[in-house]
Every structure is written in structure tokens, then in C-alpha cells.
Amino acid sequence: MQIHSHSEFNHSRGRREQGLQVLLDRLVQTMQRDELVRQTTNQLRESLQVDRVVLYYFYGQWQGQVTFESLGSKEFSILGSTGPDGCFNDKYAALYLAGRVKAIADVELEPIESCHRDFLRNMQVRANLVVPILIPRGLWGLLAAHHCEGSHYWSPSDIEMMQTGAQTLATAPYILES
């Protein structure tokens, strides 16, 4: 049996408490980030009067998934969906890194890559508005508004509203640190 001195015990307890504090701080930051994303996507969906607003988060080199969604109806859920393999590549990433905003009023009429059109059809998207979420490290994610039940004209104020939402997310301290 090993006997520890009082100072060794206190040192070990201090490290454990410090570790717990770090874990608690991360949990609080995650909750704050998630609440901000939830509020932003809900406000955008309601203001734009669309069927769905999603956050597509990049967890790897142009690999990502839908991590948040605000829905007009549960039937439109695509939570956890990943992008089309090979369709989102360096060429498209560079466009979004440069601030590209893509507004498609009707995916059936827009001249887009067939893999992109098929991907949007599979997600029940008829109209699409996508803005990048850019942080100093690069492209953190995409904020996308989808209208599923028909075509949808995106006004300049719709685009500005989405850009403001993306900027709100991009400048939040708990997103910058994630």
C-alpha cells in the first residue's frame, strides 16, 4: 500500500478540478454556440418564409454535414445529411472562400452541375440560397435557405439577411474558437 503526502493529494485534486473547469467551460461554449445557431436559423426561416434553413458545418477538407436545421414541417428534415461526394470540390470551395453567395430561384431551370441538381432534388430543394460562414481560419460552414414546395425569388434584402446571419455566426467568440 502506497501512502501519499497531503501536498501530493492536494496537487492531484487541483489538477482534477482544473480539468473539470476546462470541461465545464467547453460545455458552456458549446451550449452558447448551439443556441446562437438555433436562434439564427429560426429567425431566418421565419423572416424569409421558407421551408428550411440549415447550417452545413465543415468538419474536414470540404467534408461536412447538416448540423442544425430550422423547419417549417418535420417532413423537410435533412439533419445529418452530408454533401454529394466529389461535387463540392476545391473550385466551389474557392468561390465560397471568396464570399460567393448563390441564389437559385428554381433548381429545375438553373444551369448547374447535374450532381448538384440531383443532390438538391434528393433533399427536396426547389429554391436555394447559400452564403458562406467565413472565419479567419477559412470556410467554417454554409448557411442555406431552402424552399421545397416551389420556386422562390430571392430578393436583395433576403440575401442581405442571410449574409447578416452568416456574419453573426462568423464573429461569435464560441464559433471562432471551435
Number of helices: 5
The largest β sheet comes out as: 5 strands, antiparallel
Helical amount? 40-55%
| Mean pLDDT over the residues | 86
Q: Rg, please?
A: 21 Å
**Low-confidence runs (pLDDT<50, min 5 residues)?**
none
β-strand amount? 15-25%
User: Which structural class fits the helix and strand makeup?
Assistant: alpha+beta
| Euclidean distance between termini CA atoms | 44 Å
- How are helices and strands ordered from N to C? HEEHEHEEHH
The count of β-strands is 5
Mind explaining what this structure looks like?
This protein has 178 residues and is α+β, with helices and mostly antiparallel strands. It is built from five helices and five strands; from the N terminus they run αββαβαββαα. A hairpin with a 2-residue loop joins strand 4 (127-135) and strand 5.
Q: What does this entry show, briefly?
A:
Helices cover 44% and strands 22% of the residues.
Core attributes:
178 residues; alpha+beta; five-stranded antiparallel sheet
Task: Lay out the secondary structure.
Layout: H1 6-48, E1 52-60, E2 63-71, H2 90-97, E3 102-104, H3 114-122, E4 127-135, E5 138-147, H4 156-170, H5 173-176
Antiparallel strand pairs: 1-2, 1-5, 3-4, 4-5
Helix pairs in contact: 1-4
